[in-house]
Amino acid sequence: MANEKYKIIDGHKHILYSDYLKVKNIEEKSESFFQEMDWRRSVRDFSDKLVPKSVIENIIKTASTAPSGAHKQPWFFCVIESAELKSQIRKAAEEEERKSYEGRMSKEWLNDLKPLGTNHSKPFLEIAPYLIIVFKKPYDLSKEEEKLQNYYVNESVGIACGMLITAIHQAGLVTLTHTPSPMNFLTKLLERPSNERAFLLLPVGYPVTEAYVPDIERKNLDEVSKFYSK
Ligand code: IYR
To answer: Which CATH superfamily hosts domain 41-207?
Structure first.
């Protein structure tokens, strides 16, 4: 730390932060970051090309910098490399997905998904070199198995997932957000403790050489925002 100045506020140490915030060229930086993120796409066709483990570790460390209710960091990331586990996950996920596509999802929903070309088949669950399964923790467990409250868990874990996806893209890799529903089978397969609930499954890797994605457009700024300036 360049500057070790700190203050005690209400008995708790606060460190000087403003020195970190001297970013110049904020217009160019924000524009170029937008351009970088604007070509992010969810990709379903994965290559089995290996990705260094350190990249996955950095991506998870980035996600874990997310803000969270009372800084409880109520998330846990399971990284699946094992071919055996990946195939068990694929089998269980496809069973649930088949039931969803063949009955649980409404006609309107199926219709809305048509442009994306999704169906119950999820080969990426076996092909991608890594699956990251994000768990949320509605509460933590102390050593004595007491429940310790967490706060704004969905918001916190949702933000961490957004940062995870951003980090994956920034590293030159691709992902998609897969939500096999229900997801309880993951708790059992991965032998997770009773205070964890599966939240999101993300395959991570390189796309195949000729990857195609749906030709969709994003809403423009006016459609997603309103500035109240007066
Ligand atoms: N969970 C299913 C269905 C699905 C739902 C939505 I909303 C999508 O944007 C995409 C897929 C699946 O993963 O196929």
So the answer is: NADH Oxidase (3.40.109.10)
